[in-house]
Design brief:
275 residues, alpha+beta, OB fold (Dihydrolipoamide Acetyltransferase, E2P), 2 domains, 9-stranded mixed β-sheet, 5-stranded mixed beta barrel, 5 helices
Amino acid sequence: MKRYNIYLSLMLLLVFASACNDKFDDPAIANPTAKHSPNMTIADFKAKYWQDAVNYIDTIKEDIVIHGWVTSTDISGNIYKCLYIHDGTAGLSISINQNNLCNKYRLGQDIVIPLKGRYIGKYNGQQQLGYPAWYQKGLTWEATFLPQYMWEAMAELNGQPDFSRVVPMDVTLSEFCQKFDKATLLKYQAQLVRIKGVTFEDAGEVPYAEKESSTNRTIKDDQGNTLTLRNSNYADFRSITLPTGKVDIIGMLGSYSSNTWQLYLRTIDDVKPAE
């Protein structure tokens, strides 16, 4: 009995000591560091390799290294096999043959990209990093999806994601919606933008997208300017009815065939009642 009491006392002492120790070692967090250092801005890189053609492909021959913070997410299913980055000078879209990019490339993640030997071009007017593909109908080359292994070999994560870097550019429809000159396309393509005080055509009557296919919806401002909102039928918000009243919208801005601007929502949270 005496031995049992000693054993019980020791056990209680250990439990008490453990309970009092509220300081635990935090698990180590991997902090990736890029091997290369950026030597050119996205704005300068895009301008250097710009061509006015609707479709083209070009090989990057110089030792150019860019970086950018991730501004897009495919978590809702509305953005498909595409990643958008921004470095404070311009945005850039990257076409990648990979789903669920948001699992590795989170909002605010810094990515450093050495570009020598890679490809830049356009797909239906949208300038992007990609991979060569022959467009038979147009009898020309264009930029399509980068193979996943190729993208992962060139993308260098740098540090931890920082959401404070993801700041949309406030714009009005009149700034760009009827303009397709080189300067405007370079400035606004692949930008994360916020457009305030617009309304939906067919508000309260139709969903964001039809069940059978991706769907164009139209937003407009008080001056009558309009912009196409492109919604995937695979988006998790597809069946939600377009909201009524004025809204503020955030999204990724792109162009189609160099004569149509399109906006892509990242999630349904990108649409809010106007402030």
